[in-house]
C-alpha cells in the first residue's frame, strides 16, 4: 500500500500552493455543499494535516491530531476529505496558457492526487491494523518515508561516499549499521525530518564481561594492576563501576581499532614480514579485538584489517595521551610537529619495534608522522565542535582548561548574538 509524501508536507506548502493559484474556486464535496472562502479552504487543509500528522504528546493541539482508533473520527473525515479533494480545483489566471487564452482556467495540481492516495492508503491500513491485528491505536505521523531516506543516506555515507553501492557493498553496510549505528541518523541539509528510530540491537553486550573472562583475561593497556582488577571484576554490585568497566572496554577496543589503522600505515611503508610480527598479533580471539572483528568486511576487502600487538596498543595509547596533554598546554607554540616528535621519541620505548635495525628508524618515522597527524587533527576537531556548541557543557567540564575556555567563548558568542 503506497503512502504519498504529501502526508508529511508542511502547512507552508499549502500556503504556497494557494499563493501560486491566486484565487480559489468553489469547492464541492459531492453533497451539495460548497466552500466559497479562503478561510474555509485553509480550515479544511488544517484539519487534513492534523488527521495524518499526529504523534505522542500532541493530542491537545487539535481534535483530529490524536491517535487513530477504531471508533475515532478520522475514518469518516478521511472518506469525506477524499470526495472534497476529488472536486478541488484552482483558478489559474497567471500562467502562460491562461494569459494566452485571455481568461482564467481551472486546474488540478499533483499534490491533490497524492493526498487522495495518502488518505485511501490510511483507510486501508486502518482496516488492516484494527481488523486483522486487533491493535488499539496507531499514530499516522510514524507512517512516512523520512526514516527510509535517512537510512539510505547513512548507507551511502558509510566508510566513503558511495552513491551507487552494489549488492555486496549494501549487504555489509546494512549489517554494520544495524549493529553499530555509528553514523549520524540525519544529514544537516537533508530534505526530511529527524526520525526517532534506534538501532535494532544494543551493542553494549560486546563490551560486557562474559562467563569465560576469568579463564581468558586480557591485560588492559595503560592501566594499573588495581584498575585492571576493578575493570575485570564483573561480580561487583556497583552500577557506576559496571558503567566504568564498559566505558574502559570501549576505549581499549577503539584504541585497538585505531592502532590497527596505524599498523597498516607501517606495513605499506615497510613490507618486511619479520618486522610485521613485532607490532601485529597472530591471535585474534582476545576480547580487545571485538570491535575490529565487527568492522571486518571479509567478502568486501581483499586485505583484512590489522590486529595490533599488545605492545603496539600500549605505545599508541601512551603516545595519543602525550600528544593531547601537550596540545592542551602548548597549542599556540611554533614547531609543534618537531616538538611532538622529540617528546614521543624521548618518552616512548621502541626497542621491541622491528627486528631489523635498518627498518626500525623507518617504522618510527612513519609512526610519528601518522599518530601526530591523526591526533592533532582530532584535537582541533574537538575544539571546533566546542566552539560550535556541538559538545554539551557536562562533557566539557571533564576536559582540560583550554576546552573549558573554548566553551566559555562559545557561551559569550551566543549571548552576544541574542543581544543583537
UniProtKB/TrEMBL annotation:
Q: By its UniProt entry, which InterPro entries does this protein fall under?
A: TNP-like_GBD, TNP-like_RNaseH_C
The segments labelled Disordered in the record are 213-237
Domain (Transposable element P transposase-like GTP-binding insertion): residue spans on this chain: 1-61
Which residues constitute the signal peptide according to the record? Answer: none
Domain Transposable element P transposase-like RNase H C-terminal, first and last residues per copy: 145-175
The name under which this protein is listed is: Uncharacterized protein LOC112057293 isoform X1
Q: Which organism is it from?
A: Bicyclus anynana (Squinting bush brown butterfly)
Amino acid at each position: 500500500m503506497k503512502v504519498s509524501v504529501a502526508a508529511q508536507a508542511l502547512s507552508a506548502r499549502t500556503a504556497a500552493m494557494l499563493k501560486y493559484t491566486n484565487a480559489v474556486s468553489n469547492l464541492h464535496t459531492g453533497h451539495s455543499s460548497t466552500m466559497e472562502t479562503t478561510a474555509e479552504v485553509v480550515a479544511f487543509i488544517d484539519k487534513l494535516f492534523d488527521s495524518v500528522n499526529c504523534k505522542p504528546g500532541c493530542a491537545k493541539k487539535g481534535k483530529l491530531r490524536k491517535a487513530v482508533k477504531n471508533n475515532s473520527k478520522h475514518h469518516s473525515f478521511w472518506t469525506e476529505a477524499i470526495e472534497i479533494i476529488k472536486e478541488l480545483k484552482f483558478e489559474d489566471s497567471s500562467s502562460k496558457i491562461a494569459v494566452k487564452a485571455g481568461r482564467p482556467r481551472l486546474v488540478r495540481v499533483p499534490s491533490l492526487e497524492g493526498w487522495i492516495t495518502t488518505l485511501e492508503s490510511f483507510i486501508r491500513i486502518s482496516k488492516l491494523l484494527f481488523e486483522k491485528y486487533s491493535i488499539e491505536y496507531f499514530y499516522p505521523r510514524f507512517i512516512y518515508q523520512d526514516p527510509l531516506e535517512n537510512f539510505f543516506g547513512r548507507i551511502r555515507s558509510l566508510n566513503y561516499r558511495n552513491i551507487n553501492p552494489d549488492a555486496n557493498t549494501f549487504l555489509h553496510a546494512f549489517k554494520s549499521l544495524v549493529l553499530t549505528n555509528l553514523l549520524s541518523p540525519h544529514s544537516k541539509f537533508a530534505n526530511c525530518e529527524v526520525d526517532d528510530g534506534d538501532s535494532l540491537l544494543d551493542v553494549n553486550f560486546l563490551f560486557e564481561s562474559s562467563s569465560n573472562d576469568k579463564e581468558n583475561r586480557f591485560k588492559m593497556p595503560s592501566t594499573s594492576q588495581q584498575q585492571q582488577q576493578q575493570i575485570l571484576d564483573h561480580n561487583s554490585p556497583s552500577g557506576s563501576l559496571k558503567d566504568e568497566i564498559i566505558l574502559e572496554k570501549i576505549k581499549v577496543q577503539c584504541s585497538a581499532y585505531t592502532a590497527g589503522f596505524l599498523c597498516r600505515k607501517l606495513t605499506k611503508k615497510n613490507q618486511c614480514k619479520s618486522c610485521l610480527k613485532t607490532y601485529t598479533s597472530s591471535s585474534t580471539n582476545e576480547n580487545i579485538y571485538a570491535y575490529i572483528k565487527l568492522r571486518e568486511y571479509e567478502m568486501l576487502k581483499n586485505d583484512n584489517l590489522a590486529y595490533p600487538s599488545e605492545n603496539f596498543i600500549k605505545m599508541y595509547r601512551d603516545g595519543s595521551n602525550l600528544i593531547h596533554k601537550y596540545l592542551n598546554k602548548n597549542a599556540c607554540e611554533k614547531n609543534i610537529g618537531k616538538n611532538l616528535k622529540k617528546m614521543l621519541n624521548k618518552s616512548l620505548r621502541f626497542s621491541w619495534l622491528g627486528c631489523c635495525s635498518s627498518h626500525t628508524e623507518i617504522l618510527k618515522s612513519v609512526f610519528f608522522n601518522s599518530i601526530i597527524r591523526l591526533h592533532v587533527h582530532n584535537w582541533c576537531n574537538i575544539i571546533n565542535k566546542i566552539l560550535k556548541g556541538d559538545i554539551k557543557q557536562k562533557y566539557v567540564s571533564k576536559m582540560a582548561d583550554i576546552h573549558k575556555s573554548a566553551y566559555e567563548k562559545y557561551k559569550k558568542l551566543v549571548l552576544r548574538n541574542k543581544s543583537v
